[in-house]
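Reviewer 2 asked us to include a model.

Predict the structure of this chain.
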Amino acid sequence: MKHGMVERTPSPRLVNRHAELEVASCPVAVDLAVFTLAGRELSVLLVQRSEPPYPGFWALPGGLHRVGESLDAQARLLHQGITGLEGGWIEQLKTFHRPQQTDASGQIVVPGRDPRGDVISVAYIAIVPTAQAESCAGRKDGAEQEWHPVRRLPVEMAFDHREIVDYAVRRLRSKVGYSSLGFQLLPSEFTISELQHVYEAVLGLSINRGNFWRKVVDRGVIEPTGKERSVRGKRAYLFRFTQQAFGLREEPDGFIEA
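Predicted model (structure tokens):
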């Protein structure tokens, strides 16, 4: 020990705390559910796994959390990497955790969400504008990724990703129903029919055109641009979003965003 310096040793209590962290540590995965309208249907972006576990199965894009990086930052980098887009709407969805459970004889009665061990998934949800969806599909970083309509998902998906997708669809429908999020699926200028289709495709229901017009036009939610576009041989007026607070439903649908 050098003169004038006091050598400090960790207290037993601190050592015990570190030991507790090591025992209690649980790997965390960051998974991302990205949605768009592909082929006029609400679709989610899936990646076909090439490595164990679940080789050949479709899964959400994701990976284990990197030490020293926030979960939000990793999710945004993941979003940019798989879509090629910077920015855009993304938010934390929910934490998913299902550890393996065994009975007294050691037989598995409830399989864990990840066969590699007890892994927690922090899932995020995001959307990609319809006009940019096509560029997201194809082979990326050695893996095949494709848009899958939420009405025709693979029968079996890797991990618990089918459960995550189902939950994410509910969240997206709830959020589009009471907020202006649906406009982010559209270009800056659009027709009334295109806007109505976004809401019908995401919410999974048919909307009366007259009622829809009153909600978005008469309330000043959208405004005419003075431009027209040819749609199936007919002229259609183009509109833009006025950035006004808007919800197709008067209030949230009761879905608890936990």
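The radius of gyration is 24 Å. The CA atoms of residues 83 and 136 lie 5 Å apart. We have added this to the supplementary material.
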